[in-house]
Amino acid sequence: MARFQHTVTLAPVPRRLLESCLGTLHDLAEDTRAQDTAAEDTADGRSRTGPTFTVLARDRRRETAVEVVTEDHGPDHRVRLVCALGVRSAARPREAWLTATLRTGGGKGRGHLDGTARLRLDLGGWWQATGGRRRTAAAPLSGTLTHALARATVTAAPQPAPDGRWRVTVRARVRGRSFARPLLAVAALLLRARARRTFAEALDDAAERWNAHVPAWVDAGESGLRATLTDAVRGAHGAGSSGQGCSGAREAHTAGE
Question: Which of 39, 184, 214, 237 reaches 20 to 30 Å from 15, CA-CA?
Answer without folding.
Answer: 237
